[in-house]
Amino acid sequence: MNKSNGNGSTDAGTQDASHLIDERIAQLGDWRGKTLARVRKLIHQADPDVVEEVKWRGVPVWSHDGIVCTGESYKQHVKLTFAKGASLDDPAGLFNSSLDGNTRRAIDLHEGDEIDEAALKALIRAAVALNTSKKPRTKTTSAAK
Q: Is the distance from CB of 22 to CB of 2 less than 8 angstroms?
C-alpha cells in the first residue's frame, strides 16, 4: 500500500508510479487509454530523463526538476495540463484549454484528434528547459546592502 507524502503524491518509487500509470491506461481500455499511452511515449521520447509520478488520487504526472505536465482522463477527452504552460511559447497552437489562467495551460485531446507529435515534443522540451533554467536564490546579507 502506498502512503501519502503530504503533497498529494505517493511514496511509490518511479517503478511503482510507472506500474500505476500502466494500470490506469489498461483500466481505460478505450481510445482514452490509447491516447494516454501514445502521449506518454511522446513525453519519454522528448525527454528520456522525465520522471513518472502519480498524484492527486491517481493522476499521471511527468516531472523533470518540477512538474512538466499531467495526464487526466475524462469521458470526452484526455487533458494534458502543463504546470507552467502560460510561460511557454506555443507556435503550433496546441493549447486549447485552461487559457484564462496565469500559470497553467492544457491540451484537450478528443477521440479521433490527430496529435502533432513534433509540436508536442517541442512543447515538452520547452517545459523541461523552463524547469531546469531556474536560477538558484542567493541570500543577501545586511553587509551586502
A: no
pTM: 0.80
Name the residue among 5, 29, 20, 6 with its Cα closest to residue 53: 20
- CB atoms under 10 Å from CB of 133, counted, come to 8
Q: Where are the domains of the chain?
A: 31-129
Phi, psi (degrees; rounded to nearest 5) at 17: -65, -45
Under CATH, what is the fold of the domain 31-129? Aspartate Aminotransferase, domain 1 (3.90.1150)
Do residues 37 and 49 lie in contact, with contact meaning Cβ atoms separated by under 8 Å? no
Residues 14-67 have pLDDT tens digits of 668 888 888 888 889 899 999 999 999 999 999 999 999 988 888 999 999 999
